[in-house]
Amino acid sequence: MIQRIQSIYLLVATVLWVGSLFLPVTQNGFYAWGLIIVAIAGALFNFIAIFLYKKRKTQRQLCIIGAMVALIYYVIYLTYYLLSKNTPNQPMIISIGSFLPLLSLVFTLIANHQIKKDDDLIKAADRIR
Q1: How far apart are CA 77 and CA 90, in angstroms?
Q2: Is 52 helix (H, G, I), strand (E, B) or coil?
Q3: pTM of the entire structure?
């Protein structure tokens, strides 16, 4: 399970999602329930994908869903950012916690690529037999 490189990438992506739960998204401590729910979903999809190493097709599908969750996270984040620009007393100043889901997206896509390479290798070995 952990001996495959894609499992390491998925584990790093999961840790980044969990880290985004504990770090503030903005410097004024702003965090929305929508972002929390999406971050938990992203962490769960990546964590579950780690243990589906024998079902590569399902693992790739969960990686794609995890990548879409990261994109949904940024759509919600952009919505909150644009809404906060209308309030002059509490502008939203971006912090380090807002970049962790982006790194998680990158690691999820790299893991998806490695799963595809692994699948292609298995198919090539089956052709030789």
Answers
A1: 16
A2: coil
A3: 0.85
